[in-house]
Write a structure and sequence with these properties.
Strand order of the largest sheet: 17-16-18-19-15-20-21-22-23
Distance between the termini: 83 Å
Strand content: 15-25%
Radius of gyration: 36 Å
Oligomer: single chain
Number of strands: 23
C-alpha cells in the first residue's frame, strides 16, 4: 500500500490533462488488468496465442489500446504527438520524451521514447503486425499484463461497479393518445416523438409503490438499448436498475464535431423541433451546486458523471460543446461541472432569454394560446428556464436565436475586449479625469510626463542629483493639487529629516535658521504643527525596524494595507539597493530583477496606484559630469525594459549645462503616448524651501 501511495503521488506530478485522461481506462481493460493481477502467466499465454489473422484488441478503439499502455494524449487525431513516457516518467525533468505517430485513418499507432535510459517503443492496431503487444525497451515483452499492473500500482484503475451491469428488460408499447397530447402540449410534434423512439410501458413506480403507465425514454448506443428513463404521474422519474449510465440521444452525436448538451429529455426534443439533432441530455439531472475544489475526482469516484466516462469515445473528437443547461442555480452548477470535465476551452454557454422588445404579458399570452391550441394548460415559468420553456413561450425561432448567441464558456484569466467594454468606454469619455494622467504641477514637465494611476516610473540619476528631492516635491504638488496620499518606503532618509524636507515644501519656509535659509525667516511652531498634521493626512511611512533589510514582498504587502486603510494613490520605493535582494543560488540578478519589477507592476495595476522606484546607476568610470541613461542602472536592463516610464534627474555640474540651480528632467522612456513623450525639460531648484519651479 505504501508503494502504491508513493506511485500515486508521482503520477499526480504529471500535467493536469494527463492526470485526468490517465484515469479513463476502458472497462475491458479493467477486466484484463484484474486477470493479469491474479494470474500473469495465463494472461500472457492467452495474448501470445493471438493469431496474426486476428489483429490484437480487434474492435477496441485505438484510444483505449493506447491508454491501457499508459499513453494519454490531448487528442487522438492522425499525426505526430508528444507526451510524458509512462515507463520512465520523462526522467527528473518530466520531459515530453515519448513520440507517438497515429495513422491518419486512426487504425494504428507507433511510439518511441527518446530518453537513452528508456527507449520504450511499440505499436498497436494495424502497426502491431499481429504481435499482441508490439512493444520493446523497458516494457520488454511482458505486454498487457505489465501495463495493467503498472496502472494498478498507481491507482489508475477503471470504475468497478458493485453489481454487474445489466441490460433492461422492457415491455414497450406505442405511445397512447394521452402521451402524444402531453408532448403536443409542450410543442413537440408526434414526428419528433417517433424519431426518438419514445414509448410507453406499465412498470413499477418507486414514487407510488405500484405499477403505473409511464413514458419511456430509451437510452441507446449503436442502436442497442442500454437503459430506460421513465416519467410517471405527478412528474416522478426513475431509471431501470443496474444499467450503464450514458447520454440520452447518444447515437445522434456520433461523429459530430459540434454537439449540444441539455439537462432533460424534453429539452433535447425541443431543440430538435428548432432544427438541432446533434443534442444529448444528461441522464441524472443537475447537482444542487458545483464543487469548489479544482481537482477532479478519479473516475471510480465520479459516479454522478459516470456517463461522461462511459461515452468518452463519442466525445473525444468533438471540437465544440454547447452547454444548454437550465438557467436556475442547479443548471448553472451542472454546466460548471460538465465544463470542468469536458474542457472549458471547447465549451460554450447558452442563456435562455425571451425575445427582446416583448413584454412579459405578451409572451405569457402567446404561450397560453399555444398551450390551449395543443390541449395543455400547464403553467409556464417566468422567465424561461430551459429550451422547452422557451419553445412553448415563443416558438422554435427564439430557441435557435439563443443557441446561435451562445458565448464561449468563461475561463479564468482569459477574456475578450467586450468583457471590459464599460472600462474602455469610461476611458474614452474621460469619466475619472485621470485617464491621460494628472498634472505634475510644472507646465514644462507636463509636456513630457504626467502621472497615470497604475503605472511604474523608474527614476535614476548620479548621486547628489536630487532624485529623492524631486520626487518629494512632485508628491507635495500632487497632494496639494489633487488630494493624493502616499506610502513612503525611503530607507536612506531618517524620519525627522524626511519630515523636515516635506514640511519645508508645504509651508514654503526653512525649518532651521541655517545658511541654506538665505536669511529667510524660520517657520513658526504654528506652521510646524500645521505641516505635521498635513503630512499625517497625505503621507504614510513604511519602515523596517529590525536590523535586516526589507524585501520587496514585505514592502508591497504593507503598501496593500495602506491602499485599503488610507486609500493611497502613490508608492515610493527609494532606493533599490536598500532592499533585501537574497535570491536562489540558481537565479541570476537579471531574472531576479525581472520578477521583482513584475511584482511591482502588478501591485500598481491592481490597486490603481502609481509607483516611483528609485535605482542608482552603476559606477561610471571616466565620468565627465554628463547625465546617465537608463541602461546605466546597476543590476539589469529590465529596469528600463519593463517600466512604464523611465526618467533621469540630473543637476547641472558643467557650465555648458546651465546654472547650478537648474535641474534637468530627462524622459527616456514613455510607454503611454497619451500621457507623455520622450524629451527633456528643466526646472529651477529653490534650496531654501526645496521646491521646484518652471524656468519659463
Amino acid at each position: 500500500m505504501a508503494a502504491a501511495r508513493m506511485a500515486m503521488r508521482r503520477a499526480w506530478k504529471r500535467p493536469w490533462w494527463t492526470k485526468v485522461h490517465l484515469m479513463r481506462i476502458p472497462k475491458h481493460a479493467a477486466a484484463m488488468s484484474d486477470d493479469a493481477a491474479t494470474s500473469e502467466e495465463p494472461t500472457r499465454h492467452t495474448l501470445a496465442n493471438t493469431t496474426k489473422a486476428t489483429p490484437p484488441n480487434a474492435g477496441t478503439p485505438l484510444r483505449d489500446q493506447l491508454e491501457t499502455r499508459g499513453i494519454v494524449l490531448r487528442t487522438y487525431r492522425g499525426g505526430q504527438h508528444r507526451t510524458v513516457c509512462p515507463q520512465c516518467g520523462g526522467g527528473s525533468q518530466k520531459e515530453l520524451s515519448l513520440s507517438i505517430h497515429i495513422d491518419e485513418d486512426g487504425q494504428g499507432a507507433a511510439w518511441n521514447c527518446f530518453r537513452a535510459r528508456c527507449g520504450w517503443s511499440g505499436a498497436v492496431g494495424r502497426r502491431s503486425n499481429g504481435n499482441a503487444e508490439g512493444e520493446s525497451g523497458i516494457a520488454g515483452t511482458d505486454g498487457f499484463a505489465a501495463a495493467s499492473k503498472k496502472f494498478r500500482d498507481v491507482g489508475m484503475t477503471a470504475r468497478k461497479p458493485e453489481v454487474p451491469v445489466q441490460r433492461p428488460k422492457v415491455n414497450f408499447q406505442p405511445p397512447s393518445a394521452k402521451v402524444l397530447q402531453f408532448f403536443r402540449g409542450r410543442s413537440i410534434p408526434e414526428s419528433v416523438v417517433d424519431r426518438n423512439g419514445i414509448m410507453e410501458e406499465k412498470c413499477y413506480s418507486p414514487a407510488t409503490g405500484r405499477e403505473e403507465l409511464a413514458i419511456a425514454f430509451p437510452y441507446r448506443r449503436d442502436g442497442e438499448l442500454i437503459s430506460v428513463k421513465y416519467r410517471g404521474p405527478r412528474k416522478s422519474f426513475w431509471q431501470s436498475k443496474n444499467c450503464e449510465k450514458i447520454f440520452y440521444g447518444l447515437d445522434d452525436i456520433k461523429g459530430k464535431k459540434e454537439i449540444i448538451v441539455v439537462e432533460g429529455e424534453l429539452d433535447k426534443l425541443a431543440l430538435e423541433v428548432a432544427g438541432y439533432t446533434n443534442v444529448v441530455s444528461v441522464p441524472d439531472g443537475a447537482p444542487r451546486k458545483a464543487k469548489e475544489d479544482e481537482q477532479l475526482p478519479p473516475p471510480e469516484e465520479d459516479t454522478k458523471f459516470s456517463y461522461l466516462w462511459n461515452c468518452r469515445e463519442y466525445l473525444d473528437h468533438v471540437e465544440k460543446v454547447v452547454l444548454a443547461t437550465d438557467s436556475d442555480e442547479p443548471g448553472q452548477a451542472l454546466a460548471e461541472e460538465l465544463s470542468r470535465r469536458l474542457g472549458k476551452e471547447r465549451c460554450w454557454k447558452v442563456r435562455w432569454v425571451a425575445e427582446q422588445g416583448r413584454s412579459h404579458t405578451d409572451i405569457a399570452s402567446t404561450a397560453q394560446e399555444n398551450a390551449e391550441q395543443n390541449g395543455d394548460a400547464a403553467a409556464l415559468p417566468k422567465p424561461p428556464k430551459d429550451a422547452n420553456d422557451l419553445l412553448r413561450m415563443e416558438g422554435p425561432d427564439a430557441v435557435k436565436e439563443c443557441i446561435r448567441n451562445a458565448e464561449p464558456y468563461p475561463i479564468r484569466g482569459l477574456f475578450r475586449f467586450t468583457d471590459f467594454y464599460d472600462e474602455i468606454e469610461s476611458y474614452y469619455a474621460l469619466t475619472l479625469g485621470e485617464e491621460m494622467g494628472v498634472s505634475t504641477g510644472w507646465n514644462s514637465v507636463d509636456e513630457v510626463y504626467k502621472v497615470v494611476p497604475g503605472e511604474l516610473t523608474v527614476v535614476t540619476g548620479v548621486p547628489n542629483s536630487g532624485k529623492s528631492e524631486w520626487i518629494d516635491a512632485l508628491m507635495v504638488n500632487l497632494a496639494e493639487d489633487h488630494g493624493w496620499s502616499f506610502a513612503l518606503c525611503s530607507m536612506e532618509n531618517k524620519v525627522r529629516d524626511h519630515a523636515r524636507k516635506l514640511i519645508e515644501k508645504r509651508v514654503r519656509a526653512p525649518f532651521f535658521d541655517a545658511p541654506y535659509g538665505q536669511s529667510r525667516r524660520r517657520m513658526s511652531r504654528e506652521s510646524l504643527g500645521e505641516g505635521v498634521r498635513w503630512l499625517d493626512d497625505h503621507f504614510h511611512l513604511i519602515r523596517y525596524e529590525d536590523d535586516q533589510l526589507p524585501s520587496v514582498d514585505w514592502v508591497l504587502n504593507l503598501a496593500r494595507s495602506a491602499v485599503l486603510r488610507f486609500g493611497i494613490r502613490g508608492l515610493v520605493i527609494d532606493p533599490y539597493n536598500e532592499l533585501d535582494h537574497q535570491r536562489p543560488h540558481n537565479m541570476s540578478e537579471t531574472e531576479y530583477v525581472s520578477q521583482m519589477i513584475t511584482k511591482i507592476k502588478r501591485f500598481a495595476q491592481h490597486h490603481d496606484c502609481h509607483v516611483w522606484f528609485v535605482a542608482h546607476p552603476r559606477i561610471m568610470r571616466g565620468w565627465q559630469g554628463e547625465a546617465p541613461n537608463l541602461y546605466d542602472i546597476s543590476g539589469s536592463a529590465h529596469f528600463i525594459n519593463k517600466c512604464d516610464n523611465g526618467l533621469v534627474v540630473h543637476r547641472s555640474r558643467r557650465p555648458e549645462d546651465g546654472a547650478p540651480d537648474e535641474v534637468q528632467i530627462l524622459l527616456r522612456k514613455v510607454r503611454n503616448k497619451a500621457s507623455g513623450r520622450i524629451g527633456d525639460t528643466k526646472l529651477r531648484y529653490d534650496i531654501t524651501t526645496g521646491r521646484y519651479s518652471d524656468l519659463y
